[in-house]
Each structure stands twice: as C-alpha cells, then as structure tokens.
Fold each of these.
Amino acid sequence: DNDGRTPFSYAAQQGQTVVAEFLLETGKIDPDIQDNDGRTPFSYAAQQGRTVVAEYLLKSGKIDPDIKDNYGQTPIFYAAQRGHTAVVEFLLKIEFLFKSGKIDPESKDNHGRTPFSYAAWYGQTEVVEFLFKSGKINPELKDNTGQTPFSYAAWGGQTEVVEFLLKSEKIDAASRDNHQSTPLTIAAQFGHKEIIELLLQTGKVDLEAKDNDGETSIFCAAFAGHTEVV
C-alpha cells in the first residue's frame, strides 16, 4: 500500500496466524520485507503482542527478528514500549528455542536509546523488572544526550519504575546527562512530586546541584510553575 506494507505485514500485526502461515508457505513472499519506515511484519507482531504469530514466525526460521528500522529500532523495542513482557521474554530465549539468530537486548536506536530505556520512560514496570533481572542488560547505559533509563523514568513520572530501580541499589540516582541535569532536576522541571520525594529519601541527591545553565532543581520547579514542588 502507500505505506509500503503488504498483506503479510497486516496479518502479522493483527495476529492472523492462519493467514500469515498460508502466505509464508506459498514461498512467494519476503517475510522480512520492510515498509517505508523500515519495519518488518515481525516488528508489528511484536508491537501488538501477537505471541502466537511471533512464535510461528520464529519457528519457521525464515525471518530475522533483529532487523533495525529507519529509526534504528528492532522488534524488541516495540514490545518493550508497549509492555508486552511475554514477547520480550520470548525474544530473549529464541537463541535456545529456535534457529532464528540472536536478539541484542542492548541494541541502540538512532538516539542511542535501548529497549530498557523506553520501557522505563513509558512506565512498563513488568518489562523493566524482567529485563533488569535477566542480567542481559546494563541498566545504566546512557543515550546520545547522556541520559540513563532512570533519568527517563523520572522524566516520565513513572513512580513504580523509579521505586523499583532505587531499591535495586544498582542505579546512580544522581547521574548527570550532557547538560549536567540530574534525575532530580528533571523530575522537578516536570513537577513529579512523588519522584522527588523518593529521590530525596535516598540521601544521595544534591538539591543544590546545578546544570550547565547554573539552574538547580528548585529553580527548575519554580520556573515551570510547580508551586507544590517548590
């Protein structure tokens, strides 16, 4: 169609396993064909949490489950963003279950961000916990702006994720990005009071820490009009 997508792509997205199987068995389609955004049918199946279709495609051995799209994102990115823990778990196990290649759970997109970073930002706590406990990722990997997944959780106001990561004691609660902003500064800027309280309770953050503009967390909160935070 105008988006460069095929019937097979839509069948995978909608979880139509019988249709997908029929089309694949004809031998007349490219199961890894990429649309205008560089996305594959498997990418859409992962995004929608279509575990049955995903399992069928992986078992077929006819797809590459780690193809990057135009944004540098692989299927596991989309599963993580949407909170499809079962798909994420499945993907990390495929090298043992099928002959479909390996998945890089620390793959970085064009912004230098990982699936874990997006899961933290969107508050997908179950995915965050699974990836963290899998031991296959570095939860402190920074993106092109120097921000960690924890910073994004603070930015997104994801209290459950922030609380989980703080309890792990493996996170630098005062990490600085390229602008020298900290998770506390970011949380203050967006008025996330509960996260600010959690950060202060750690005793590991500095209220007076300044970014490259010389602004503290209190300044950021005041400037943004978050009276309840100030």
Amino acid sequence: MEKSEKVKELIFPEGREEGKQKLSYDCNVCKKSFSQKGHLNMHKRVHTGENPFHCDTCGKSFSKISNLTTHERVHTGEKPFHCDICDKSFPQSFNLTRHRRIHTGEKPYRCDVCSTSFSHQSALNSHILVHTGETPFHCDTCGKSFSKKINLTTHQRIHTGKKPFNCDICGKSFFQKGGLTTHIRIHTGEKPFHCDVLWTSHSVPKFFKFSHTFPSSYRGEKLFHCDICGKSFPQSYNLTRHKRIHTE
C-alpha cells in the first residue's frame, strides 16, 4: 500500500467520508434506517402516536410541523400554490400538481387490467374495484356495501335523513349535490342539454337521452330499406306494407 493511501486510511477510517463519520440511525421497532437523527426521532412518532404540534384554532394535533402548517390553511384560507394557466389556487403543492393534469391531459396512472388511465392514484384505486368486485365500505345500519367511501356516505343519509345541500332560493334540501344542481335550474331556467335532432333543450340529462330514443319517424330517419327497389321508410310497418307492391 502506498504511503499516501495509508495516511488517508488513518485519517478517514472505514465508515467515514471526507472527514465525516457515516452514521446510520436505526429504529429499534421496525429497523428502518435514517441518515439523520432528527429524521429518526420524527419517524418514531409513527410507533408512539405522539403528536406534539397543536393547532391553536381547533386543537387538532400532528406528528410533523409541516402537517400543522398545511392544516392551518384550512382556517386561514391561504392557498399559496397557483396554477399559471387558469390562476386557480391550492393549499398544498400536490393539489396543484394533480390539477395541472386537467390542462395537460396527463394520466400517469394506468389500470393493468383494462389499460384505462387516470390523472391521480385515488381514481385508479377506485377503478380497480370494478374488476375485483370488492366493496370495502359497509353500512353499519343495513349492511349494504360500496366500492367508494363517498357512495357509502351518500347512502347513509337515507338512514339519517340528513340533507346537507340546501337551495338558497327556496330552502329545499337534497341528499346529493347533483340533486341541488338540477333543482336550481328550476329557478334559473337553465337547460344545458340540447338535442340537435328535435331542437329541444332540457334541464336534466334523462330527458335529453329520451329525446334521442324517440321513434325514427320523429327524427326524420328512414332506417327500413326495401331490398327490391331500395326505397326507405321510417318504420317497419311502412316497409311491410310497401313490399306488397312487389308481391301482388
């Protein structure tokens, strides 16, 4: 061994880098390792359940000060993360990241079964239950199960009678936000669903779909064709009657 190498080994023994000892701080519960003691101390709260950071407004506690800072924005209304495309703001950076995918069309989370893609992980997780048939959210009252927690929450209002969505105009209440949205159109007269066939507008999708299922005669379509002369008719009985011309 060269003299310079031997000197270096004496100065920087094994386990040291550039004069700094390479330490590993291990959790005595799960054996996870950390490069800094502060990170280990913070990790230990996972096992102890300690939440030393308290919200002065509502008293809620957190294991990390960063989580407390984020939580406090619920009370202050602060939204420091801004979308540079539509100027919408968010309280957390990951909210902004997910929002931007609306503009970019990015859907990085793909289903391994059917290849359907989603813009965020939670949407993919919910979708996967379609394939597995799993319904992990159970109603304690009637035992009915659901694949999504939001569906369970909505269902439970049947038992509680709770209608949290209120019309500011007439005071009528609804189980779901969609019910309130549809109801408000009674007051505003809005009819956002337009039928290009019948030239009609509707306040709810079901009437819009109904207009598209009208008999072909209402839509001016002629779907029934004579295979002898090629003439077309809007309804089958018209074609049947016409064919008698060729058989007589």
